[in-house]
Amino acid sequence: MADRYRVRRVFLAGDAARIHSQEPSTMHTYDVTVTTSASPDIVWKLLVDAASWPLWSKVDSLDTTRSVDLDPGGDDGVGAVRAFRTGRTVTGERLTEKVERRLLGYEDAFNSSMHNYHARIELKPTAGSGTVIHWYGEYETSWLLRWVMPRYLQKFMQGMAEGLARYAEECRPAQ
Length: 175
Description:
SRPBCC family protein, globular, Alpha-D-Glucose-1,6-Bisphosphate, Chain A, domain 4
């Protein structure tokens, strides 16, 4: 009898794992746009330099031990993995697209809360020598996070874009 119980228990645990792995994920998006008086050159230099992100964003630090192929000169290229710590969480983003002063694309390299994450940051010059920053992405979460993550990430990314715009304005060279 004890053997049958153990077999049944293992079967149920296996069933739960199978069901969990097949659980439908939910695709979400965020989309923020911010305009800054800083030039696209200044904004671009901040975006491609992972070491600058803690200065202007909501991330606490760049985790260089988990990052890969960072450019020592601050011009990270496609394929670089940038690991950022926010609180106790470290997330990794792999650069996938780079069009100088216009587009930076990335995907999740490791992220416990999201999967199939793809994001793009597009820069467009304004008539007055400023920059429109358009930051958007899509991602999947578990069904447990589907109610919390969309609002949280929209607000978080709005703060990221606003921080970038504000810091870029402060970095403008004196005229």
